Amino acid sequence: MAKHNLRKYRSKEYDRENIVLLFGSTNLLWDVKKVYQDTFAKALQQYNQKQTRTDRRIDDYFEHVSDKNQDMAVEIIFQCGDKDFWEDVYMETDKEKQNKENIYKVYNTLLEQLQKEMPDFKIANAVVHFDEASPHMHVVGVPISRGFKRGLETKVSKRSVFTSKMLENILQNRLRKTASVEMFIHFGVLVKEKQKGKNHDLTVAEYKVQKETKWLEMV
Question: Which of 41, 63, 98, 190 has its CA 20 to 30 A from that of 147?
Fold first, then answer.
């Protein structure tokens, strides 16, 4: 993920200059580790203080989770407009600079709202790609859940944070409406309505991940 998002490889197909870092640093692993350190330090200390056996203590929660079969972080991909739209609008050379600035504003607004709407999804890194068919934003964060009786009181838990209610109400409803308003303000177009009975935006995201994963394997 770090290699693709932050262009940690050389390729004629991609231009590292055409990415904009909105949050975090150029070291994705360090960004995720920092979220772990800032978020779980207190819970880890409290857990270790209760342990009478040294072999049950956890020195590093990040390394502890990495040894388990669970997600350590989650990536969300935002894309407003399809390939055809950006070929007509974004690729106009006389407006390219202004369009980049407008895209930046759209995704920065979505990122800010995501942080407010989902405080238990601690964002580690966010970057916008301008060097592919459609400008899009990669957001990597750590899902946090609290109130556990066993182990640490605060843990990483994708299942607790990314519920069907959250996906529907926040990602597919409120954030979609914000995206539509922002696109209308900056580009004069509205985001397409979600297809009835189908998680259209999630399908697009899954397709994007599959496409980029294949490209990374080829690289």
Answer: 63
- Rounded mean pLDDT of the chain? 82
Q: How far apart are CA 145 and CA 85, in angstroms?
A: 39
Closest C-alpha among 16, 114, 202 to residue 2: 16
As given in the structure block, the two tokens for residue 155 are: 């843990």
- 34/90 Cα distance (integer angstroms): 35
In single-letter form, the type of residue at position 88 comes to: D
Which single residue is written with the structure tokens 């934003």?
137
Q: What are phi and psi of 116, to 5 degrees?
A: -75, -40
pLDDT value at residue 198: 47
Please tell me the pTM assigned to this model. 0.80
In angstroms, the CA 206 to CA 90 distance is 23
Q: Are 135 and 46 in contact (CB under 8 A)?
A: no
Are 19 and 127 within 8 A, CB to CB? yes
